[in-house]
Write a structure and sequence with these properties.
By secondary structure, the chain is an alpha+beta fold. Among the domains are: about 50 residues, no CATH class; about 45 residues; about 100 residues, Orthogonal Bundle (DNA polymerase, domain 1); about 120 residues, Intergrase catalytic core (hpI Integrase, Chain A). The protein is built from 18 helices and eleven strands. The strands form four sheets. It has a three-stranded antiparallel sheet with strand order 1-7-8, covered by helices on one side. The chain has a three-stranded antiparallel sheet with strand order 3-4-5, with no helix packed on it. The chain has a three-stranded antiparallel sheet with strand order 9-10-11, with no helix packed on it. Strand 9 and strand 10 form a beta hairpin. Helix 8 packs antiparallel against helix 10 and helix 8 packs across helix 13. The longest helix is centred in the middle third of the chain and has 20 residues. It is elongated, with a radius of gyration of 36 Å.
Length: about 525
């Protein structure tokens, strides 16, 4: 029978050993290697019986031959190794491709190194490769996973729970879980592990722990932001006019910080009938070269701004957002500064004390409003996509302009529709005044076609709370009762109308409550 055990062997009693008697039997106590041991003495009294510090595995291979394999000093680690060996033997017996034993005994961090190299060789950006590999390494080190067999879903869940207890968000916890699950799956695909022990772990809902949801600026807010930036001082070593152009490009192209920082004169084609701006694949988040058409108003401002720049090298970034040391400047710090300046100016424009107090209490131009939403630099991308929705741009087109992988991300995360947008959408529903009956009055509801109905008073003046497919007939003659049971005719309202008339959608569908979501940093 397969077993995990320690090997016993005889050893001459050391001269410094102390002889003791336990339960009538003779033992010796001495320091053996790095620890003090108490072991029995042989019958002749000249030797003692000592165990190896390492555990050993005894098992039958696929041919039925007994084998012995040296394990570790830790019993749990040896048990995990035994399970891996047993699984490998079972696979060989079933004719399946075995897992290379070298992978099973190799340090887990070495596998992480290979995983990182594989990500870098594929269509994954350098930032994403670094983030994923760093998360996996932290989990492996903190959970003390030494070999593939040490991967434990219970340990990973406990580590993630501790991460959240220490103040990190559920979104961050989900990022760590996604990375380590990706690593475990990679090992299975590359025949380094038999199965993925983390496959069943699920992400938590981020809706219960929002930390940095964003809001798009209104048109009035954005215009005041631009005015404040253009006349403002340098912030984060970026001049005011450059900041204004940065905000405009972000809000009219949806480009992110890194993408905007890579733009040069060669990135723009302003002379053609359809002006565009291009971002290289090396700087795009999705790792692909992208091209976005430019609004003519943006083209006009770009030309005016470029004239103030003088002679610029064609391949030099127009607005560099990196320091000479390679660190990223903080566009959100710029936004916060310019929003504060714009808000103070707006409050000073108030006529009268009451209006000034009202403005100070409002969230207009606030970086962080009373709903907990932020108007940071990445909000300009939210503004770009939300404006596409308000303009009635089809979802498929908006998704391509946003360069999103799924339409769900475009509609649910980046499309923010306010009350005015919803009012406009409701206003596009059919005009009720145009679907009246022949007498000019609204026809009675058809209870045969409705699954539910509002309570109606019967002839006795009693309102029945029972919802029925037929109106109340109490107190009526049998003839009248039978007449009321006949189907009522509806003219112009109901299924027939909806077959003939299509209600046009307003913007990107379908917006849902809680559209804001944590997304990528500036």
């Amino acid at each position: 029978m397969a077993s995990i055990h320690k090997i016993k062997y005889k050893k001459v009693i050391p001269p410094d050993a102390k002889i003791i008697v336990l339960d009538g039997e003779q033992f010796v106590r001495f320091k053996h290697k790095t620890r003090t041991v108490t072991v029995p003495v042989t019958a002749d009294g000249k030797q003692c019986i000592v165990e190896t510090p390492e555990w050993y595995i005894r098992y039958k291979d696929e041919a039925g031959e007994w084998r012995r394999r040296k394990g570790y000093t830790d019993r749990r680690a040896t048990e995990n190794l035994f399970e891996e060996i047993q699984q490998r033997v079972d696979r060989k017996r079933q004719g399946l491709q075995p897992i290379d034993e070298e992978h099973l005994t190799r340090p887990l961090l070495k596998h992480v190194d290979d995983f990182e190299a594989d990500l870098a060789a594929r269509d994954v950006t350098a930032d994403e490769v670094r983030n994923i590999s760093q998360r996996v390494r932290k989990i492996v080190k903190d959970c003390e996973f030494q070999r593939i067999g040490d991967l434990s879903p219970t340990a990973v869940q406990a580590w993630l729970a501790k991460l959240r207890e220490d103040g990190r968000s559920i979104q961050t916890s989900n990022h760590y879980l996604q990375s380590v699950k990706q690593f475990a799956k990679w090992m299975v695909v590359n025949k380094r592990a038999i199965d993925n022990p983390l496959a069943h772990l699920k992400k938590l809902s981020v809706d219960t722990d929002r930390r940095h949801d964003r809001r798009p600026l209104s048109t009035d807010e954005f215009m005041r932001l631009i005015a404040a930036a253009e006349t403002g001082k340098s912030v984060e070593a970026v001049a005011g006019a450059d900041r204004a152009m940065l905000y405009i490009l972000a809000a009219w192209t949806g480009f992110r910080r890194k993408e905007l920082s890579s733009l040069t004169l060669r990135s723009f084609d302003l002379a053609s009938d359809s002006p565009v701006v291009r971002v290289q694949a090396a700087y795009s988040k999705n790792g692909r070269a992208d091209e976005i058409p430019l609004h003519m108003a943006v083209v006009a401002r770009l030309r005016a701004w470029l004239k103030t720049k003088g002679d610029v090298e064609p391949d030099k970034p127009l607005i560099c957002l990196q320091t000479p040391g390679g660190h990223w400047r903080k566009p959100s710090k710029m936004m916060r500064h310019d929003l504060d300046i714009a808000r103070e100016k707006w409050i000073k424009e108030a006529k009268g004390t009451r209006e000034r107090i009202r403005r100070r209490r409002s969230s207009f131009l606030k970086y962080h409003n009373e709903d907990g939403l932020y108007a940071d630099f990445h909000s300009n991308r939210h503004m770009f996509i939300s404006n596409l929705g308000r303009a009635g741009v089809p979802l498929a087109t908006a998704q391509k302009l946003a360069r999103h992988s799924t339409p769900t991300l475009t509609s649910n995360t980046y499309t923010h529709l306010g009350l005015s947008d919803k009012v406009a959408a409701i206003g596009q529903l059919p005009d009720l005044s145009k679907i009246n009956g022949p007498t000019g009055e609204l026809p009675p509801p058809n209870y045969d076609s409705l699954a539910t109905a509002l309570p109606r008073p019967c002839q006795n003046g009693v309102i029945s709370l029972h919802v029925s497919a037929q109106p109340c007939t109490c107190g009526q003659s049998e003839e009248t009762s039978q007449e009321m049971k006949k189907p009522l005719k509806i003219q112009g309202f109901g299924a027939a109308l909806h077959k003939q008339t299509q209600v046009e959608t307003s913007g990107i569908e379908p917006p849902t409550p809680g559209l804001q979501s944590q997304c990528s940093p500036d």
